[in-house]
Amino acid sequence: MQPVMAPTEAAPVTPVAREPVFELHGVRYLYAGRQMALDGIDLRIERGERVALLGANGSGKSTLLKLLDGIYAPTDGTMRALGQDVAAIADGQDAFRFHREVGLVFQDPDIQLFSATVLDDVAFGPLQLGLPEAEVRACCDEALRQMEITHLADRAPFELSGGEKKRAAIASVLSLRPDVLLLDEPTMFHDPRGRRELAGFLKDVPGTKMIATHDLEFVLQMCQRVILLDAGRIIADGTAREVMANAEWMESHGLEVPHSLR
Questions:
Q1: Ranges of each domain in the chain
Q2: CATH topology for 48-70+91-112+179-261?
Q3: How many CB atoms within 10 Å of residue 88?
Q4: 152-198, pLDDT tens digit by residue?
Q5: Given this model, what pLDDT does residue 212 score?
Q6: 50 - beta bridge partners?
């Protein structure tokens, strides 16, 4: 009789590390080749994070968002986005996929609202993708519902209040169903109730979010992580409460500790 062999144990499976959404090393950006806007940025953003960019005016927040959106390319350093070197995302399908997966909501909503109606603006992106009419409609309905502006679909953008324009601009990006949402001052023009509602809406939107804002209470509602910028450099990077409760960091870089943390 042949001896019974013990079953061979399967070798343990080594988990595959997930690529971060963004990974920057030593990134610098100069306007017109001479004005330093970002100076030596080292940054890693994981999938699903909600990250706030804080800093005084001119600290580099908006520039960093535009870099992450591919509007600007680094002057120096390396940057990977969605698993690729940004140098490879120049044109063709890579650029098309990138700009579908990463959506930027500008500080000024009038930049993104240029059509006859809110619905036309929200439908613009999906139509450019060549989606079937039924799918375009579904994308638009979902985005308008997420921002609770379905009742504004047939209104002209110039008829809207500032807060309504901001929500319409966000909806025009959400209709593409991006994996990464970059928002520049999303609470601008909103009253306190509108800011609370917006935080609730955005929390329910899946994906990674990076938010440049001066609205510190909104950050406490919305973000787990805060990156403090000054003169194009990262001064602090930690949990929202850890960074924002540090009076020395906040006050020496043009900000104040929010009232709820005092």
A1: 48-70+91-112+179-261
A2: Rossmann fold (3.40.50)
A3: 11
A4: 999 999 999 999 999 999 999 999 999 999 999 999 999 989 999 99
A5: 98
A6: 209
